[in-house]
Amino acid sequence: MDAREFRNTLGHFATGVTVITTKGDYGFIGFTANAFSSVSLDPPLILVCIDKNAGSLKPFHKGHPFVVNLLQEDQEVDCWRFAKKSEDKFDGSSYTVSEDGIPILQENLATIECYVEDMLEGGDHYIMTGRVKNTAYDEQKKPLLFFRGKIGQLKEPVMIEE
């Protein structure tokens, strides 16, 4: 399997954009991730995939708190800020701090506070499952999307009748 073709194929799946935040020994940590999914409602679990070579990997161990910040259409700057390597990714971003001391980006589409449930091997990534502790969301905002390697926005949501 050609890695570039595989990546290009996966790029045809539109995803939301998240910034994962936590704290480590030397301060706050954050990175952009689009490999995010719900896993279970009972118990409430999500998953995030983290590159095994990521510098932000160290603090993620069983029981460690983290936050999934689902970005909204006006947060493209945050998307790119947390996708790049830098000394202080939080410089210039607006955030509050959870009761666990984890940064939560302001103006998110949704926020999911978690604790690491498990770290599983997944090729060149770890599949981190998180047990959800708390959630918040804004019904008025629209998501920031990732599609074919580019950031985009939802034109208008279509409601499906039940």
Task: Describe what this molecule looks like in 3D.
There is one protein chain. With 162 residues, this protein is mainly beta. It has a single domain (3-153), classed as Electron Transport, Fmn-binding Protein, Chain A (Pnp Oxidase, Chain A), CATH 2.30.110. Helix content is 10%, strand content 47%. It contains 2 helices and 12 strands; from the N terminus they run αββββββαββββββ. It has helices at residues 3-10, 76-83; strands at residues 15-16, 18-24, 27-33, 36-41, 44-51, 65-70, 95-97, 103-105, 110-122, 125-137, 144-147, 150-153. The strands form 3 sheets. The protein has a 7-stranded antiparallel sheet with strand order 3-2-6-9-10-5-4. The longest helix has 8 residues, at 3-10. It is globular. It starts with a helix and ends in a 9-residue tail after the last strand. The mean pLDDT is 88.
